[in-house]
Amino acid sequence: MANVSLKHIYKVYPNGTKAVNDFNMEIEDKEFIVFVGPSGCGKSTTLRMIAGLEDISAGELKIDGLVVNDMEPKDRDIAMVFQNYALYPHMTVYENIAFGLRLRKLPKDEIHNKVVEAAEILGITEYLNKKPKEMSGGQRQRVALGRAIVREPKVMLLDEPLSNLDAKLRTQMRAEIAKLHKKLETTFIYVTHDQIEAMTMGTRIVVMKDGYVQQIDTPKNLYNYPANKFVAGFIGTPQMSFFEGTLKKDGESVIIKFDNSDEEIRVPYSKLYKANPSGLDGKTKVYIGLRAEDVSIAEKGKESGDAVIKVTVSHKEELGSETLIYGDIYGGDGSDEGLSRIIIKANGINDISAGDVIKVALNFERVHLFDKQTEQSVLPRIPEYNYLDCEIKDGKLKFLGVDIDLPEALKTADVKGDLLLPVNAVTFNGDLKADVVSCEKINGINLIGLKLNGKRLYAVECDAAELKTANIGIDLKKITVTADGVNVISPLPETNGFDCRFVKRKEKAQVEINGKLKNRKIIRFGFDVAGTFFNASDEIAQKIFSALGVKNAFTSQLKMECGIYDVAVSDSGIEANVEETLDYGADKFLKCDAGGNTVYLKSDKECAGKIYLQPDLEKIGIIEKERDIKII
Ligand code: ADP
User: Fold this and answer.
1) 245 and 288 in contact (C-beta within 8 Å)?
2) Looking at residue 580, what is its pLDDT?
3) C-alpha 160: how far from its chain's center?
4) What is the pLDDT of residue 305?
5) Rounded distance from Cα 577 to ligand 1 centre (Å)
6) Which of 268, 277, 321, 433 sees the fewest Cβ atoms within 10 Å?
7) Residue-averaged pLDDT of the chain
8) Are 415 and 488 in contact, with CB atoms under 8 Å apart?
9) What spacing in Å lies between the alpha carbon of 55 and ligand 1's midpoint?
10) Structural domains of the chain, ranges and CATH numbers in brackets
11) Which residues contact 66 (CB under 8 A, 6 or more apart)?
12) CA dist., res. 115 & res. 100, Å (int)
């Protein structure tokens, strides 16, 4: 029973393969987490790093609150089950299960009780005296599970444990493992390439691709709200059908137009409130995604209408209770998995044949839309921005019927443009009266729907669920205003980056030797930022060495990151030149040049010319530039 915390975890193999990139996740006690993705996506590597079978290149791994990066596998209190069972062939089932306990020198009768209990849970009591070779694959995997559970580990790690079993046994074992998880009340982390296994077993699923986490969510949310096209296509059978097209706002509706076709469908604009309106121009390309159950054969008498399109049938799969009909929206061959194939789920057996042209109805309540370039959903559950029209006039920012005085730092010529207002820039301590019209809790974050002068606005992270109205404000440091594609107001950066190197230097220090203080030269490790030395704690130095190796530690190009509130003007430190004072009203910031790096910091004092900067070393991040790895 334990939680597992993965913070900025990376794995770079010695041959340079970057198998895992910036993996971040907090796994709660007793969760059943599944890592899923195609072969080579990095799921086993991640699991093996948790197990301690693979070194962690960078990042921090905690089990039950304890950093275990450098802890031996045997000390981590985990148990692992592999695809190939890894049983000792010359031992009986009993001996195989008891083996680890004997090594730990547990009393004999305690071992006996644990083995018998595990065998009972797994239904293998009658095989205890058999050898693995006398057993089926499913039974052998139960033995492997038995060997893991007698250790009563804090975390159970399972690497494709069912891949060697036939389909029927896999389904049965899936249910058994899920039951086992409930019974043991232990944290399970399970790796599979099989999305059905993931969907049926996980309390939460991590979808990975090419070493990157694509999305972490419950099975239901992954299915209903895939964050990108990859997740949409990977999760769910049959696969989601994708088409290319465009979106065009037309009054209070949006026209979804399929490319190379006259087909177009109208949906209410309210469905696309969260989308960036600049993509609703009838030109920006999107992928239109529909699941088979959201496509149906149009009922008689309803063969025309907004959401009905023509499909040429290529073949079908009769599955008994339902039929999957494959077709093409351009009259092509629906056998090809392309951007015109459509899969339709129909009830029971049906008499449609290959070559038929049928009318199908699309349930556009459940359409998925992805930007063609980024492949990200254009309808994210939590939008990053509110996209609003605005005007700057006489030093005021006007939008949604409100006027806000712009502080000195943001004063600019009169202009009409677009306001990008991050949802997290809407605060709940201002003087603009808004109605609270909705509150959705999404992965622990409250997304609040507001109406300001009758117009929609989103905000996050506030306990406004109970409120009917709210007094909101805008954090002007976070806004962007564009006019004719040019930024006339840009957000204040949130972090600074200093180029730096990891260095060692000799220092004179007083060292206690045999109870006497003596002057000695000692070696200190630290960072050289533009000629200034910053001492690194032992912990930080250790992280640098373990991520870069002793040889590369001193030659790698690094970047020191620190927040704009985590660097201060001091008597000594990094030399910088003040270029500008940015007056945001209540807060004032300095914009400086420090050896070619532009640095922002909050300062209540007037400063000009040469100053010295002191970053808060407790709060810095260190990035290795070449491989783009966050070491700290
Ligand atoms: P998965 O479990 O998702 O199939 P892995 O974690 O096994 O993927 O591998 C992720 C990537 O790391 C792949 O590109 C694989 O080729 C590479 N890889 C795995 N092990 C090693 C290794 N020992 N040395 C070098 N590259 C490796």
Assistant:
1) yes
2) 93
3) 22
4) 61
5) 47
6) 321
7) 92
8) yes
9) 13
10) 4-233 (3.40.50.300), 238-371 (2.40.50.140), 385-489 (no CATH), 495-630 (no CATH)
11) none
12) 11
